[in-house]
Amino acid sequence: MNSNKKLIGTSIVTAIAASLCCITPVLALFAGTASMASTFSWLNPLRPYLIGATLLVLGIVWYLKLKRKGRDIDCDCEENEKPKFLQSKTFLSIVTVFAIAMLAFPYYVDVFYPSINKKEIGVVNASNIEIVDFDIKGMTCTSCEIHIENEVIILEGIISVKADYEKGTTMVKYDKSKVKENSIEEAILSTGYIIIE
Predict the structure, then answer these.
(1) Are 133 and 170 in contact (CB under 8 A)?
(2) Could you tell me which residues are beta bridge partners of residue 133?
(3) CA–CA distance from 160 to each of 10, 97, 115 (Å)?
């Protein structure tokens, strides 16, 4: 039983670690410390291994849980004894759902941010429209993209923002009469990511 508890704990830790680089920007949003968003970006290369470890450990725990139940039928132990909650299938099911939710976090992170695509844009003089591309260091997933886009779109005069973690870029279309490029840079830097010159 003790080894099952350790394995369950291991699966929770690996699931959280696998998505920590994606969870941190959301935690930073709620905590109001946007600059800590890229703190765990070094974990991103380890994500596939952590996902594999999580699934492997959960598979072992479920196998042991189901195997033990089949073995208990042949023993002379008391069948009326109810297992403790931490040793129950219910608890293991909760841990499994939690682990899967953590592993899938990058795919539904946008629910935690305001809708950045619903910003209303007034009339903009075509001669005032500028487009600037920034090379960004530290983005590792869609959570990073959404974090940067959310910080920039709230500036007055921003028409559109599109960050791409795979390319390491952010493209901003803005009204130069309402916002300056250095204000956009400051908004990006406030997220904790680095602009490469």
Answers:
(1) yes
(2) 171
(3) 42, 36, 13
d(CA 98, CA 83): 21
> What tokens appear for 17 in the block?
């670690």
> Do 134 and 191 share a structural domain?
yes
Instruction: Specify the residue for token string 């765990």.
Output: 40
Angle value at C-alpha 90, between 86 and 96, nearest 5 degrees:
90
Which strands make up the sheet holding 194-196, listed edge to edge? Answer: 158-164, 169-175, 129-137, 194-196
Question: Do both 134 and 179 map to the same domain?
Answer: yes
> Looking at per-residue confidence, does 128 or 46 come out higher?
128
Containing domain of residue 118, as a range? 113-196
- Confidence class of residue 118 from pLDDT cuts 50, 70 and 90? low
How far is CA 128 from each of CA 28, 49, 122, 124, 180, rounded to the nearest angstrom? 33, 48, 13, 7, 11
Q: Are residues 86 and 98 in the same domain?
A: yes
Give the angle subtended at the CA of 132 by the CAs of 130 and 134, to the nearest 5°: 165
Same structural domain, 30 and 61: yes
- Residue 24 and residue 66 in one domain: yes
